[in-house]
Amino acid sequence: MKPGLAAWLKFNAVGIIGVGVQLAALAVFRSGLAWPIRVATIAAVECAVLHNFVWHERWTWAHRALDWRRFPGRLLRFNVSNGLISIVGNLLVMEILAVRLQLNYMVSNLLAIGACSLLNFFVSDRLVFK
Q1: CB–CB of 60/10 below 8 Å?
Q2: Minimal CA–CA distance to 92: which of 113, 118, 77, 122?
Q3: For a FRET experiment, which of 31, 43, 104, 120 has its CA 20 to 30 Å from that of 98?
Q4: Distance between CA 122 and CA 130 in Å, rounded?
């Protein structure tokens, strides 16, 4: 299998688990702690971003033999790029679907995650884990 295809498949496998992390965190922050939807969304996205970074570092792009001394820089780049894409994208989609159209916040969040996925892979592959 080509390295790019393998990375794409691994990226999506990690992402699926990250969706679970994000939805669980969102449920805790929104339903359990009654945080406002925007704050709960940002916190839940950040939980998933950190989870996904660790798995991408150790599994998705492990074939690139990444220098462990550059770990902090990769974490920063991942958090700024994927984190920013995910937070802004999730906030926009959640604002439209959950707040304005009053759709279920979990369904709205799933749609937001899907909307950000492809751009996050491209940025990770080309800028973060190079």
Answers
A1: yes
A2: 113
A3: 120
A4: 11
pTM of the entire predicted model: 0.82
**Residue 61, Cβ neighbours under 10 Å: how many?**
22
From the list 36, 19, 42, 25, the residue with the least C-alpha distance to 88 is: 42
CA distance 80 to 39: 18
- CA atoms of 120 and 20, how far apart (whole Å): 17
SS (H, E, C) the chain: CCHHHHHHHHHHHHHHHHHHHHHHHHHHHHHHCCCCHHHHHHHHHHHHHHHHHHHHHHHHCHHHCCCHHHHHHHHHHHHHHHHHHHHHHHHHHHHHHHHHCCCCHHHHHHHHHHHHHHHHHHHHHHHHCC
pLDDT digits (tens, 9 = 90+) for 64-120: 878 889 899 999 999 999 889 988 998 999 999 999 999 999 999 899 988 898 889
